[in-house]
Amino acid sequence: MTTRFPLPAARSVFRDDEPVVQSHPLLPGAQPPVFGQSERWNLNGVVERPVNQYAANYRVSFAGLTPVWNLRLRETAMVWLNPRHPAVLAAGIHLQPQPREPRTVTLRAGTLRTLAAWAEAERLPEDLSRWDIEDFHRYIDAQRQRLAIGSVNEHIVVIKALHEFGPVLACGGLPADPWPGQPASHVLGIRDSEELSTPAIPPESWFPLVRAAWTYIDAFGPDILRARAVWQGWQAATRPLPQAELTQAVTEWLADPQHRIPVRPSRSTDPAAAVNWNVLGTMIGASNNLFALRSTGGRQRRSLVLDVVAAGRTQPGLLPDLHEVTRPDGSRGPWHPCLHPLQLWMECVALRNACYIFVAALSMMRDSEIRQITHNSVVEHYGAPSVTSTKRKRDPDLPTRHWWIIEPAAKAIFTASQLSLHAELAFGRVRDGSNDDGFSSQHAIVSFIRRVNGSRRYNGLPAIPDSKITPHMFRRTMAMLARDHPGAEIALGIQLKHVATRALANRSTPGYTRTTPAWARRLDDALASTRFQRLQDLYDAHRRGDTIGYGPAADRLRGTFDSVTRVSGQTQHGDARVEYDLLRKARISIRFGKLNHCTLDETNPVGAKCLENTIIPPGHQGPLVDRCQPARCGNSLFGPEHIPAWRTEEHTLLTLLDTPKIAPIRKTALQRELDDVRAVLRKAKS
Description:
By secondary structure, this protein is mainly α.
């Protein structure tokens, strides 16, 4: 029964019998709470709740407040949930039409409760018009002492709302804004910045975590799924056996040499302590307690089993042949000592968590979007594999969107779907009777790291540093790693589902892609190592007498290679390591591409067509790739692998020039492109 506080004499503009949800889509058969319910508004089952949100986030509580504060809180919550309510508009309050999410209203209701409790402790009147501006400043200073700056921001937002919503607050709002003309963020000194507050995952945590997740999916996952299928099959086949048939059933089962006794590690010298008697009874197919110590028959049947154990016919848990790994001590062995039912359930949870981590790391989807993935949601989108899910952020219509993924990510989603017992969701509970469809994504990450690190003695995985990793950090880190690919900002804007305000990416995209010092050092080292390996391959090809390329840039590179060979002559060409060291010290500048290689020397960029007649951005080094003119630049090196692409381009241009009724200006442009292409092909022929 709903508790009703005695209401103040002032009468609210909202009727007691009107529903509190009028601006959100309702679920079928929903019965929203009404404004007069003064203890709690439960919005679970009324509006759709994201899978990654707890039910408590959709319950707005008013319990324990005085009548004045109770009504004030309900009225502000009503405005946040229904910003276009007729009473709100009639009062001259014009807000953005988008209603607040119920979880935001719940959060702000808690903030108002904190303000009410502080006011009571400070013996301030319930009439807000009698407060001084300094009272609000003292309150915010008190919150600064205990909360992060972002959380304090919400307290200022709520206080400002008490002024803005004043015309519809029956007990009166604030007559003036304590911080007029200043957004809440500016009051706290928070300025807009392209810097994203979410940090990137450190590389020393990223690599072992993603590797561990993929190892679970690719190597351990088949064992876990197979063990679960075997155990479920045995459970489904059990039945109560007549007492007279119990010993016969055990004897017949033991007579099959393929059958093995499930054992687990035990420090006891008693062989019976190692046998998992419950699992063995299920394997035999009896729901009876076959091996009860209190019965003579049970002790006799145990004796028969122990004879087989003594003969060595045992297996560690449900499966005898688990995937083998190299352990930290250098030994080889199964990745798990024994998969019994309890351990199997724990590993099913770990596998689901690994799938979640891997998809979060490589898809750049938000946590809510990953958790909303349903069974059979991996499809083809514009010729590439993608996953469909619901986009919630800034989309009140909850549209279905596509996120492009790679094949391993598709495998992770398929594995999670096989584990999930939820009727719709791919990431759901993994065991009957458990209630973890609403599992915490944050806890899933922490749990997986603990599972990996706590089992390293036998799973062979590298240690994952114990650092704070949140779901959103995966999205940030992967966007940063993908930033250097051509057209990355456009591609990331599409994949991140950012509002298309500039080249299909909004101002948040550069914040996601901004690198960190730790990653910058690692990425620069990796890039330099890859470049040198390809340069080394070119050097080896030149030493063999192969053609490494065409054009003036190729001639200069051959000259440099010949110089390295001459200097290393004293080694009689027998020490390749010395030659490679000399090659590295030569500091050859080369950038490898699909149509050409660029040999621009940053210390002497003479002849670089991409830098002619242009303004070079401050701090930029190297070529301007978007202005590259391969056929006309003396820094272009055309390798044999590039020539087929240029020949294809020549054929395409000739076909276009033969098109009837082509516009003269278009024909002139095509002819100019053809001349450039043929200039490149002439270099190859010569």
